[in-house]
Design a protein that fits this description.
This protein is α+β, with helices and mostly antiparallel strands. The protein folds into two domains: 3-241, no CATH class; 274-368, no CATH class. It has 13 helices and nine strands. The strands form two sheets. Strands 5-6-7-9-8 form a five-stranded antiparallel beta sheet. A four-stranded mixed beta sheet has the order 1-3-4-2. Helix 5 (129-148) crosses helix 6, helix 11 (281-294) packs antiparallel against helix 12 (300-308) and helix 12 packs across helix 13.
């Protein structure tokens, strides 16, 4: 898992550091700040570091090369996911998803903790006000890794479950980062808001990629706070060992706290050679139906009734000539929610070519694009 921080509005913010040849622990350096930041993380996370975290300082070019290398390592998984998003009509024709993601990340990725090397990798060594809170965030990831082995949590084969897990990981780190920001002076907090932010994501990047990348950082903090409020420190630590199984559990923390697991559904039939199977999840349906709310085709109440009742789904994806197709079987928590989901999906089908819906107790959506 590559834990990236970026500087774009709407996606995670990150290290805004100018490259420097210095790697000494002199005043004002990241190296000098790390021990202070580690003490802060320990006091607010409730755990102790098992060993010091190494900070790797890279030149501009070396850092860029490292980010590209890590992106390419995960390219096969992303390409598969991008085909599914294209089949659902969420990535428009003519858009190169690999290029779009590189553009999105490349516009703001400035530092990261890599569990495979156990290092915080940054550009340069200057601990400015724009950098310190992000070092705290990244060191929280290092602590998570030391206690809960982030490196072994790679891919479950279920994108929705992976999203839920990353939401836990990032929510915990954002929570500690926010606690650090709260200790800053009014002047420094003002500097964070005026000097350290990035611009909007590139206009040619599909909105679905922005939403998927930002989701863990937005939904994660309230999710982790809900666990702490209900179960305390032990409950939060336990969540890293038995982590959420679906985006519905992080969107509705009570479902995770009550142990409500998503239903397991059989694969729907495919009309070709299957290249992927998995779960769209409540988050996926939120994104899929969101435009209908924006255009007024679907009311907010109808949207909530359709998506909040998600109880499980299962899709298969296949190629059909120059198109990709997805067929998904979805289950809801009761008859009223099933009816709401079926109605919403039929509204989607009437507004988008290549989409068909079959009714029943478990509606089936087919989308080709």
């Amino acid at each position: 898992m590559l834990l990236l921080l970026t500087a774009c509005s709407g996606v995670p913010h990150g290290l805004l550091v100018q490259p420097t040849k210095s790697t000494s622990a002199g005043p004002g350096s990241i190296d000098a700040f790390v021990p202070e930041a580690m003490r802060f993380v320990e006091s607010h996370r409730g755990l102790k570091f098992k060993h010091t975290v190494k900070v790797q300082h890279l030149s501009d070019q070396a850092f860029s090369n490292r980010v590209i290398e890590l992106q390419r390592r995960d390219r096969a998984s992303f390409d598969r996911q991008a085909k599914v998003l294209r089949a659902l009509g969420l990535i428009p024709p003519g858009v190169d998803p690999d290029k779009a993601m590189e553009e999105l990340l490349g516009s703001g990725v400035l530092g990261f903790y890599d569990p495979s090397t156990k290092e915080l990798q940054v550009r340069g060594n200057s601990a400015t006000v724009c950098v310190k809170h992000v070092v705290v965030h990244e060191l929280t990831h290092a602590m998570q890794d030391q206690w809960f082995s982030l490196n072994v949590q790679t891919s479950s084969g279920n994108d929705d479950a992976d999203t839920a897990y990353i939401t836990l990981v990032e929510g915990d780190a954002v929570r500690i980062e926010s606690a650090y920001i709260a200790t800053l002076s009014a002047k420094d907090r003002q500097a964070l808001s005026t000097q350290c932010g990035g611009g909007l994501p590139p206009s040619d990047v599909p909105q679905v990629l922005v939403e998927m990348l930002s989701f863990p950082y937005v939904v994660g903090p309230p999710f982790t706070r809900a666990i702490l409020q209900a179960q305390g420190q032990k409950g939060l630590d336990a969540a890293f060992r038995n982590h959420p199984a679906a985006s519905s559990q992080v969107l509705h923390p009570d479902r995770f706290l009550h142990g409500d697991k998503p239903q397991s559904l059989p694969d729907p039939g495919a009309d070709g050679q299957v290249f992927d199977r998995g779960t769209i999840g409540e988050l996926g349906f939120d994104i899929l139906l969101h435009d209908l709310v924006q255009t007024g085709t679907l009311s907010s109440a109808q949207f909530d009734a359709a998506t909040n009742g998600w109880a499980g789904d299962r899709y298969v994806a296949w190629s059909q000539g120059d198109h990709f197709c997805v067929r998904d079987r979805v289950s809801d928590t009761g008859a009223a929610n099933t009816a709401a989901m079926l109605s919403a999906l039929r509204t989607l089908a009437s507004s988008r070519p290549g989409v068909t819906v079959e009714g029943g107790s478990q509606p089936v959506l087919t989308s080709c694009a």
